[in-house]
Amino acid sequence: MAAFEKAPSEGLQKNIEAVKGVLAKHGYTLSAEDVGRISLIQETFNRGGLSITAEYSSPGSPGGIPVTFADLMTATDKNGQSWSFLSSEAAYRYIRELHRKNLIVPLVGNFAGSTAIRRVGEYLKQRSSIVTVFYLSNVEYYLSGPTMRAFQSNVSTLPIDSSSMLIRWSPRPTIPSVPWYTLDMGPVVSMLSPISELVDLYKANKAPTNFSEVLRGTVNPALLANFRQDPSLRMVTGRVTGIAGLKPTELLRVSLVENLRPAGLILSADVAADGTFEVRNVAPRTYQAIVLRSCTGCSASRVASAAVNVVVDKDVTNVRLEFIGQ
What we know:
The chain is 30% helix and 21% strand. By secondary structure, the chain is an alpha+beta fold. The longest helix is centred in the N-terminal third of the chain and has 17 residues, at 32-48.
């Protein structure tokens, strides 16, 4: 990366002509506007080089995540393992071969539209294939109410199985909505969620309506990985009664607290409008169930119920908690 960063820029126009030639060979008729756009993109990447960022040359961009291409290609996980496609010759050749076989297909579409996601689902169903991973980034941040519902409806049409996963990314301003976030995770956080969970919530009319609700419903990826490997993990469901006096911006959450020590396990789930709640991926042990009163965008909350003992040795249903207004 350091060597390429110092290398002189040459052959830009030749490369632009080569791109135009490949497109023409495949039968694409390019307008002057098309050619100008291609040239602009090529020139932007040429200027940015290995220091280019996701927000490079974007008008009005806040520049909040200054991660360069070189940073991404040389980054490692906590174990020192590099996963980029340039981390090894084998990784590079794998991605190169996908391109050579035309197996990486860019699509332009609207997550809440009526075409793109559904057509992908139809294509896969015709070939008896499933969606294994759907990377959403933080697109749901820009969806709410009807558009969020439309996106969820689109996802519900995709062919999936129990291993199909959503991958989300939360930038710094929305991190307070991630209940399991800790400071050692850094300024951004990624998360995994089974696609089937979102589809189930959508069909039951309990799916999140905005990005904050989406994030609050996620679980620590490490816990999710344990759940995939540990069939002993259980589900706890129930209802909060006596809910009254909440402001429009306030919300309730049920937490299962093993203990208050730093290593103690705490699992949470939002309370639905009808008072029901559902906590998944619960390890077998004894918990104290409590209701927490918080608000949209708040990082603090306060206890709003008496604690109830919950012994989890199998799926626990019909846990009752009484809301105490303050």
